[in-house]
Each structure stands twice: as structure tokens, then as C-alpha cells.
Design a protein that fits this description.
This protein has helices spanning 2-33, 37-49, 51-64, 67-91, 105-127, 140-163, 178-210, 214-226, 228-239, 243-267, 282-301, 313-334, and strands at residues 133-134, 137-138, 307-308, 311-312. It is mainly alpha-helical and 337 residues long. The chain has one domain: A middle domain of Talin 1. The strands form two sheets. A two-stranded antiparallel ribbon has the order 1-2. It has a two-stranded antiparallel sheet with strand order 3-4. The longest helix is centred in the middle third of the chain and has 33 residues, at 178-210.
Length: 337
């Protein structure tokens, strides 16, 4: 048992270390290419920090043959990414972190909610014996792909209009060449890819040896490990006052994760992936929808900071939903069917 926990810890450390470098070199590349921080957060940083979910999902359904780990990682990461907002809130002392973010993030959160409804519907249909497919792929997969592409296009056009009236962010990477940035970015990505490929095998052994179930292990432990880059980059962004980079990265990662679910379905050759996994996955999907709705309300209403034990009421609610989600999945996995 100790060896498997040590392997899990090694995966976490590798992803954490490489994730920090990915964030730094991604920021350098953003500076060299002239991209704004908001757009960098939604697209570049979201894609970069979601690389572990991408590799973990692909290896889970192709090499390890554990689709529950893949789906649990995607949906669990969506919940975990939104929970990170509660971690950022006490770090941003001027106020509630979502109250200081641009309202344009409502677009990312809104597209995320729409995309999350798709796996919920797929799981409900599969539970009732309805499997809609195109060849071996679920009929929901093309919808997820279209939603992701449409979301990126709408957000890009919105940011283009907004950036015209914004001052460019001042970054401090003059001493780093573009060649060094690209090389460092690629090297860090390889480390993340290697650790993420190893992760589903570790997760499967954890599920067997602890008896906790693949859905719970995938939703909590694997999702935690693969979401570490989001934690690191978000905290770093808040500390330098780049709120939009942090929030854009988190909400953009969720949208990207739903695109990963579509890719996992394509790679899983046994049929529509949602027809071969536990119905328990509906719990984190609904929790992510709930947390996304809370984020949208906060972005629109902009609540004032009223803190209790260092946390705003918004952060406390987010943490409560996350804990209830983890407990609900754990109980459902251990309930005989």
C-alpha cells in the first residue's frame, strides 16, 4: 500500500514542478506573441494546465482500460477548478476575487454550464438503456466539440473588442529569448505528459487496494493531481494582481476538459464512453453546474467582502459544495447496487 501512495506522490510532485515551469514559459510566450493576459488565461493557460487531464484521459481509455478514471478525472477536475476560486479568495485581500474579475468571464462559465449538461444527459440516457451513437462514438461527442469551438470563437471575438480599449499588461521577460521559452515549454510539457500517463495506472491500483472505487479515486485523487497546474498558475496570477489570468484559466480549463471528454470517447473503442462508466459521475457533473452558476451570479452581482475566519461567504459556499460532492460520490460508490 505504501508503494502505491509513494507513486501517487511522485506523480503529484512531477506535475506540480513541471506545471510551474509550464505557467512561466506560457507567460513568456504570451509576452513574445503580444497576447493579452485574459485571452492567454482562457486559451493558452487553460490548454497548458489541462494537459495532465488530456494525457491521463487518453491513456486511461487506451492503455489502462479504465474509462471511469478518465470520466472521473474530467468531471472531478471541473469541480476542483471551481473550488480553486475558494482558495484564491482569502489570498486576494482587496475583496472577493470574482467581484474584481471582468464580467466577460460569464461567457466561459456559461458555455461550461451548457457543455456540462451534455454528459449529464448522456449518463441519464445510458442508465435507462438508451445509447445514441455514431459508429462507436456517442452522439453527444460532436456536440461537445462544436460547443468548445463555438465557445472559443465567441470569447475570442469578445476579447478582441475589449482589448482595443485596454492597456497592455507589462511583463518582465525581456531577458528570456523566444527560443528558450519554446524549448522550456516543450520540455516541461513532456514531463507533465509522462507523469500524467503514469497516473491512471496508479489510480487504478489505489481504487483496488483501498476499495474506494474508480469513480471516487478518479474524481478526487486523480483530479486533484491533474489540477495542480491550475492551482499553481492561479495562485501566482492572483499574487501579481492578474485576476483575469487566474479566473480565465480556471473557467477556460473547464471548457477544455469537456473537449477532452469528447476525445476520450473517440479513443475508447468499446462504444460510447458514458455507457460504460458508473452513473455516479452525474454527481460531480451536477456539482460543477451548480458551482458554475454560483460563479456567474458572483461575476454579475459582485458581492462585497464579508469574511468569516478569513473566507468570504462565497468561498465558504464553494468549499461546502465541493466537500458535499466528494462525500456524495464516496457514499454512492460504496452503496451496493
Amino acid at each position: 500500500m505504501l508503494s502505491i501512495w509513494l507513486q501517487f506522490a511522485a506523480c503529484v510532485i512531477l506535475i506540480l514542478a513541471a506545471g510551474v515551469r509550464l505557467a512561466r514559459y506560457g507567460d513568456v510566450i504570451a509576452e513574445k506573441t503580444g497576447m493579452g493576459r485574459t485571452w492567454t488565461g482562457v486559451v493558452l493557460m487553460a490548454s497548458v494546465t489541462s494537459l495532465p487531464e488530456l494525457i491521463t484521459g487518453a491513456s486511461s481509455v487506451t492503455i489502462a482500460g479504465v474509462p471511469d478514471i478518465a470520466v472521473g478525472d474530467v468531471l472531478g477536475s471541473c469541480v476542483f477548478n471551481l473550488m480553486i476560486i475558494a482558495i484564491l479568495d482569502p489570498l486576494y485581500r482587496p475583496g472577493v476575487v470574482l467581484s474584481r474579475a471582468e464580467q466577460g468571464h460569464i461567457l466561459s462559465a456559461g458555455f461550461g454550464v451548457v457543455a456540462l449538461v451534455i454528459p449529464v444527459a448522456g449518463l441519464l440516457l445510458a442508465k435507462n438503456g438508451v445509447t445514441m451513437s455514431v459508429l462507436w462514438i456517442g452522439a453527444y461527442t460532436p456536440v461537445l466539440i462544436v460547443l468548445y469551438l463555438a465557445g472559443m470563437r465567441v470569447i475570442f471575438r469578445y476579447e478582441q473588442r475589449k482589448m482595443a480599449s485596454e492597456r497592455k499588461a507589462v511583463l518582465a521577460y525581456e531577458s528570456v529569448s523566444a527560443r528558450e521559452a519554446y524549448a522550456g515549454f516543450a520540455a516541461s510539457a513532456l514531463v507533465v505528459a509522462g507523469a500524467a500517463t503514469w497516473l491512471p495506472f496508479v489510480g487504478e491500483r489505489l481504487a483496488v487496494e483501498t476499495g474506494w472505487g474508480q469513480t471516487f479515486v478518479g474524481m478526487l485523487f486523480v483530479a486533484f493531481a491533474t489540477s495542480l497546474p491550475e492551482v499553481v498558475t492561479s495562485i501566482a496570477a492572483v499574487r501579481i494582481g492578474a485576476i483575469d489570468l487566474a479566473i480565465g484559466g480556471l473557467l477556460g480549463s473547464n471548457l477544455f476538459n469537456l473537449g477532452i471528454l469528447a476525445l476520450d470517447d473517440v479513443l475508447y473503442g468499446a462504444g460510447p464512453i458514458l455507457a460504460h462508466v458508473s452513473f455516479t459521475h452525474v454527481f460531480p457533473a451536477l456539482s460543477a453546474i451548480l458551482l458554475s452558476g454560483i460563479a456567474i451570479l458572483a461575476l454579475f452581482y459582485r458581492p462585497e467582502p464579508r469574511r468569516f475566519l478569513g473566507l468570504s461567504w462565497l468561498a465558504a459556499i464553494i468549499l461546502a459544495v465541493y466537500v458535499l460532492n466528494a462525500y456524495g460520490v464516496f457514499i454512492l460508490e460504496r452503496t451496493p447496487r
